[in-house]
User: Which sequence fits this backbone?
């Protein structure tokens, strides 16, 4: 006996998926059955789950460039440093007074 399941996939993603599956000789149904069977056999996701590499936003990108420039001595680094947590907390607390 076979069950029918409906899934929702972004149109662009499905188009890309169909193209790639066709190149490997698989259909979407065949691939999903393969992945599901492997999940049941292995009792885990049968492949490494990856995400697209995140791109930093403008603020983060600027902070990275500034940190690298300070590390290279291209711009002065006036960032305070501490030898213990008590000193760091005292420095942070001075803004509250």
Assistant:
């Amino acid at each position: 006996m076979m069950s029918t399941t409906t899934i929702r996939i972004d149109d662009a993603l499905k188009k890309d998926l169909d193209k790639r599956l066709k190149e490997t000789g698989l259909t979407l149904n065949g691939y999903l059955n393969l992945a599901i069977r492997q999940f049941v056999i292995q009792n885990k996701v049968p492949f490494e789950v990856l995400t697209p590499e995140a791109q930093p936003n403008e603020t983060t990108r600027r902070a990275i460039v500034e940190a690298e420039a300070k590390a290279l001595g291209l711009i002065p680094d006036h960032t305070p440093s501490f030898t213990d947590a008590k000193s760091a907390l005292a420095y942070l607390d001075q803004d509250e007074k």
About this structure: The radius of gyration is 26 Å.
